[in-house]
Amino acid sequence: MRHLIYLVLTLFVSVGMGACDQSDDGVQPPINSDYTQYGTLFRNVPAPQDIVIYQVNLRAFSEEGTLAAVTQRLADIKALGANVIYLMPIYPNGIENSAGGLGSPYAVRDYKSVSPEYGGLEDLKALVDGAHSLDMAVILDWVANHTAWDNAWISEHPEYYETDEEGNIISPPDTGWLDVAQLDYSNQDLQDAMIDAMAYWVYNANIDGFRCDAADFVPEGFWTKAVSTIDQIKDQEMLMLAEGGEQRHFNSGFDFIFGFHFFETLKAVNNGEPATELQSTHAAEYQNVYDQDKRVVRYTSNHDVNLSDGTPIDLFGGVEGSMASFVVAACMKSVPMIYNGQEIGYDQRLQFFTKTPIDWTQANNELLEEYKQIIEFRKNSPAIQHGTYSGYSSDNVVAFTMEAANESVLVLSNVRNEEVSYLMPPKLKGEWENALNGSSMNLETSVSLSPYSYLILKK
């Protein structure tokens, strides 16, 4: 577990917030001693390489827009094949200088409360308990870089914030995020207060980790301290996802970083750039990453790009093209993330400053079954989960293998809306089994792929 790896680091963590119950390695992390652990340990947290993340936008997931409504549909998320539920921010959001609508969930007014809009702490506990009973972990979105302007820290601890030359608290520079105030991580008391607030949810709701928003904006030293501290609270694996593309986050102890560049390259390839560009992006995202457990989270949609760019159906050539791209994102040495609604082919952009409930009656059930089939294969493939990647792409076909001791998987995905011929490299010729239908296929000189079609082969 990560707490063993970071044992030495935690010896240097501030203990100014008081002692807590000792972890099993004897170190006392800086956590408020008043907290007691709710619930029981979740022993079935999936290994980082085995994870499939399902992102929930509470304002879109249901008509009610509540945590309880998510709990009611946990079985559906489980049936999709996800084993980690990632909840967008559940906290009360700011009213002052609001960006509009109901306000941004990423403008946090109180780090230690559930917004009444979504329910209460008991509703979150019930969701986590229900997910654990189905062998799914739950992670919360955490916004460490900035707060709402009406967060109590503004008046009680103005020293926590960055200021201009006149001493006025500022918004995050060069972002246009005017609804939030920039925190100052040179202040050690702020660091302790932020870690304390993160720990609150581990203790009081028994969550299994965090997706940390805008992680590139927050110093590495803070993340190192935060990750190592959070990891010691419970004697179980904790999942830490940096919403950042910088590899330094792996050094801080994060399990995952975000595939921002992979997504942009995937769009470019679908707009005509050579498919070989994905190999270059893949290499860059894993450059100097020597821990084989670390993973880049890859996606064809999330709350940001759904709203700003469009749905996978908009971006990747309709339903067929969206699946040709999803197969690549899900299988190329990655952790796949699915944004609520994409699995049914929902073709509407989802606001998160207002309520825009998904109409689940519009489900494309054939597409849903295709998602399930791909995820099910991934779940049972040691090569996809733990194997070694090799790239063989052409201009029009994304091609790669994932190889483990007892299994090799070959993925061929035509990212063009036309039939293409792929010339087989000598190493890949021979007999393969179609991983999705069990049929045999002999790859010889070349293979013809219909528009936006893909093959997942194994041997």
TrEMBL record:
TM annotation in the entry: none
InterPro entries in UniProt: GH (IPR017853), GH13_cat_dom (IPR006047), Glyco_hydro_b (IPR013780)
SMART domains given in the database record: Aamy (SM00642)
Segments forming domain Glycosyl hydrolase family 13 catalytic: 55-378
GO-annotated biological processes: oligosaccharide catabolic process
UniProt superkingdom: Bacteria
Coiled coil: none
Pfam hit, one: Alpha-amylase
PROSITE patterns: PROKAR_LIPOPROTEIN
Signal peptide limits: 1-19
GO molecular function, one term: alpha-amylase activity
Keyword tags: Signal
Entry protein name: Alpha-amylase
Organism of provenance: Flagellimonas chongwuensis
Upper classification of the organism: Bacteria, Pseudomonadati, Bacteroidota, Flavobacteriia, Flavobacteriales
